[in-house]
Amino acid sequence: MTKLKLGPLPDDKPVKVTLELPATLNRDLIDYAEVLTRETGRPVTDPTKLIVPMLERFIATDRGFAKARRAASRTPTHRNAVMTATWPLRYSRSS
Questions:
Q1: What are phi and psi of 85, to 5 degrees?
Q2: One Pfam family from the UniProt entry (predicted)?
Q3: How large is the average pLDDT for residues 17-38?
C-alpha cells in the first residue's frame, strides 16, 4: 500500500444544535444585528445567523481555552480525554 502524506479527511458534516435563549439574550442578539446592519450597510435578516460567527470568534480569542487546549495536547491521554465545561466556563478534563 502506498503511504500518502494526507490521511483520512475529518468529518466536517455540520452538527445541528437546538437551544433556547433567555429573552434578554435574544433581545441583545436582535440589537446586535441592528447595529451590525448600520455599521456594515448589509442587512442581517436573521439574527440567529450571528450565533455561529460569535461562537467562532469567542473560542478563537479565549486565551484560557487556548492554553487549556495546548496543555491537553501535550498529555499522552489527550485522545481519550473529554473536555467538559460548566457555566461560567470552567473547563475540566475527564478520561
A1: -130, 145
A2: DUF2274
A3: 96
Q: How far apart are CA 25 and CA 3, in angstroms?
A: 51
Residue for cell digits 479527511?
A: 9
What distances in angstroms separate CA 37 from CA 10, 33, 47, 54, one per listed residue? 35, 6, 10, 15
Q: What is the 3-state secondary structure (H, E, C) of the chain?
A: CCCCCCCCCCCCCCCCCCCCCCHHHHHHHHHHHHHHHHHHCCCCCCHHHHHHHHHHHHHHHCHHHHHHHHHHHCCCCHHHCEEEEECCCEEEEEC
Query: Would you say the pTM of this structure is higher than 0.90?
Result: no
Between 82 and 71, the higher pLDDT residue: 71
Give per-residue pLDDT as tens, 55-73.
Answer: 999 999 999 999 999 999 8
Burial of 51 (0-12, 13-18, 19+ CB in 10 A): middle
